[in-house]
Design goal:
Shape: elongated
Radius of gyration: 15 Å
Structural class: mainly alpha
Number of helices: 2
Number of domains: 1
Largest sheet: none
Oligomer: single chain
Helix content: over 70%
Order of helices and strands: HH
């Protein structure tokens, strides 16, 4: 079942917020291991948001075709 346009937007927003939260947590901790974990989760959320951006662009192109 394909993800709808609204769902894609919601997921993009969710991933952007998740990345922001993880970056804040990384900056707030003094533990290097914990910081790396937060940094990895932030990077993963950024990657997923980027893929969702690409998906949204693709959906827009398909919708614009006759």
């Amino acid at each position: 079942m394909p993800i709808g346009e609204g769902d894609t937007e919601e997921l993009r927003t969710e991933q952007a917020e998740r990345a922001e939260r993880e970056r804040a947590r990384a900056m707030a901790t003094d533990d290097a291991t914990e910081r790396r974990g937060h940094d990895r989760r932030a990077a993963k959320a950024d990657y997923l948001r980027q893929k969702l951006d690409e998906r949204a662009e693709s959906e827009e192109r398909v919708e614009g075709e006759p």
